Amino acid sequence: MKFxxxxxxxxxxxxxxxRIVSERQALHPVVIVSAMAGFTDALLNSVREALNGxxxxxASTLDKHFDRxxxxxxxxxxxxxxxxxxxxxxxxxxxxxLLKTMAVDSGPGQSQRKCFADAVASFGERLSAAMLAAVxxxxxxxxxxxxSRLCIITDEEFGCAAPLIDETFSRTTxxxxxxxxxxxxxxxxxFIGSTLAQFLxxxxxxxxxxPISAPKCFIRKRCNRQLNEIFQCAFVTRALRRVxxxxxxxxxxxxxxx
Length: 258
Prior knowledge:
The protein has about 260 residues and is of the alpha/beta class. The chain has nine helices and seven strands.
């Protein structure tokens, strides 16, 4: 099941999405969510502000969007509210660190700029996935937010990454199948993945607990302040759509063989 940005744009929308998922529990759905409407554009705009050298202004442009997330928490969450607020606070800090790194660097290359843009933009989907999973749990529906970077493995084309189908299929199966078999609904953010190298350097190959610290950019600085090594950054990709089509094709083939 896929919910776009307008389907998770506020408290009423999140509640409606949770109701739709709840009514389809018997189908053992995997739920994919977009960022709240307008949030991805705001995140990318903050990247552009940071590249102009003003990290503080860039971060402040996101305040109203974090407030939107907090209003959803106030309206819909009780038992799940504290950790969700912590996740938002941590996301603010991580985004500010990424924007500051972009602002102070003297001249990152195009690929490096895309890497940082992907990392910043990923927070929209990640927060939506966590939020919807929390709303489901609050409504007595077994659910778990799954970090898409553990499932979707891509090439290294920053900004327009393509999935590595075999790696993605095996990791998606490994992380989602146990949840589905236990009747727990996985909720993932769309358009997010990681390279194989990043996956292998991930602190844990298992489902990380929320809030998580990734994506982190580990930087070895030279005297010219150019970025040299960047690991564990999120990639914005259409991988999930391709994986779904590939999985569907395999299932049809297996059905015909029977």
